[in-house]
Amino acid sequence: MSANTIKTNTLLAEQIADALLRIQAVTLRPNQPFTWASGMKSPIYCDNRLTISYPEIRELIAEGFIALIRDNFPDVEVIAGAATGGIPHAAWVAQKLNLPMVYVRDKAKGHGKENLIEGVIRPGQKTVVIEDLISTGGSSLKVALAVNEAGAHTQGVLGIFSYQFEKAKEAFEGAGVPFETLSNYTTLVDVALRQGSIQQQDLELLKAWRLNPSEYGKQA
To answer: Its function (predicted)?
Structure first.
């Protein structure tokens, strides 16, 4: 399977986008952009950690991940959670599938055994990585490569939401790792427009950010 060939369920993508907007896990502010830690200006802020506090939403997410896994990676042997946002969702998925789970730190511990991967993962085991958000793809691929370096095999990376940056698509394709998210930026903007939380005149601004995020907010 080549990278980014997994198909998203359109209805589920809309349901999850609606849920993320409703609990303000994702907020759109096209005319009053947020400033990310990197300094980049953005009309969107995403904190999918909020989903863990809503049982019906985390259940929807878990079942969505399971459907993607069954359709695309039916022989998976281990579920890996990316620290920190992917860990709880990986745990729920692993429990439902009755599979082992591990989680991957953003960096190795500075004490004890200095583990990067917590839990038991064995050479050759087929692994699916669970993320809460895919932005540029860098941190997600770091997790996937850590699994491979441990001797296991990353079959794919699945996330709750993606900004759909071209940079992420290119990074995953370059690494040969398939990826998909349950919902995405395009779907979210469409749902937000139907809800009335953004206006028709905001669409061009929002589209421009996704296509060229580094230049957003510099026009004024």
So the answer is: Catalyzes the transfer of a ribosyl phosphate group from 5-phosphoribose 1-diphosphate to orotate, leading to the formation of orotidine monophosphate (OMP).
Annotated binding site: 105, 109, 111, 131-139
Residue 156 has, within 13 A of its CA and on its CB side, a CA count of 23
pLDDT in tens, 86-112: 999 999 999 999 999 999 998 765 544
Compute the distance between CA of residue 201 and CA of residue 204 in angstroms, rounded to an integer. Answer: 7
- Mean pLDDT, residues 20-44 taken together: 92
C-alpha pair distances (Å), 6 with each of 1, 9, 77, 133: 9, 10, 19, 17
Name the strand (E) or helix (H) holding 214: none
- Phi and psi dihedrals of 8, rounded to 5? -80, 140
**Angle, vertex CA 193, rays to CA 28 and CA 30, nearest 5:** 30
When pLDDT is averaged across residues 145-173 and rounded to a whole number, the result is 96
Within a 10 A sphere around the Cβ of 42, how many other Cβ atoms?
A: 20
Q: Which residue has the tokens 């950690």?
A: 49
pTM above 0.90, yes or no: yes
Of the candidates 72, 141, 75, the one whose C-alpha atom is nearest the C-alpha of residue 104 is 141
What element of type H or E holds 8? none
User: Percentage of the chain with pLDDT > 90?
Assistant: 81
Mean pLDDT, the chain, rounded, equals 92
Q: Which residues contribute to the annotated binding site for orotate?
A: 135
